[in-house]
Every structure is written in C-alpha cells, then in structure tokens.
Design a protein that fits this description.
114 residues; mainly alpha; 5 helices; elongated
Length: 114
C-alpha cells in the first residue's frame, strides 16, 4: 500500500549554487524586509510603469528591483538563514498563510530585525 503525506520541510532559501531561491514562500517570509529595504527601487519602477505604458521603458528599473530583492535574500540567508528557512518552510507548508506561522515569524524577526 502506498502512503502519501505532505512534507513540511522545504529545500531551503538558496539553490545548490548558493544563490537565493525566490520562491513564493521565501518572498512572503522576507516581505517586510524586502518592502523596507527595496522601497525606493519599487517606487521608481511603479512610477515608470504608471508614466509609460510601454513595458520596455521600465526594464532597467525592474532589474534594479530584482537586484535589490536578491541582495536582501542573500543578506538574510547569511545573517539568519536557519530562521528564514524555518519561516519559509512553514509558509510553504501552510500555503503562505501568515496566521499559521506566527511562531516562526517571531523567531525570524528576532534573529533579523528590520
């Protein structure tokens, strides 16, 4: 008889090459940090999108947003990787529902305050 179950653990917040893996659960877990640290880049990108309907016009600003997010994920992984993995793993398991991961969120925010 085959038995299927949901695995609670995730692979981690970085790829095998050491680069951040920006999965939805990792991005949700790091959203406060990304929102705070990448605010200027996001605002510039959104302003560009609002001012010009041509998507090509804003590609450079979009790249700056992506670069900022990946840099934030690298920094978080270096300074509090264990807590980020636990929080992102919980978010993955609970389909990105914050309410089920408050314990992991608290531990992550304690280890990596804004």
């Amino acid at each position: 008889m085959l038995c299927f179950y949901r695995e609670r653990r995730m692979a981690g917040t970085v790829t095998s090459s050491g680069e951040p893996a920006p999965t939805s659960s990792v991005l949700m877990a790091a959203s406060k940090h990304v929102g705070s640290k990448c605010r200027a880049e996001n605002i510039a990108f959104l302003k560009c999108k609002k001012d010009d309907p041509n998507p090509e016009t804003c590609l450079d600003k979009g790249r700056l947003v992506t670069k900022c997010v990946l840099n934030q994920l690298r920094g978080l992984h270096q300074s509090c990787g264990k807590e980020l993995d636990a929080y992102a793993g919980c978010m993955h398991y609970h389909t990105n529902e914050f309410e089920f991961c408050r314990k992991e969120q608290k531990e992550f925010e304690k280890a990596c305050p804004l």
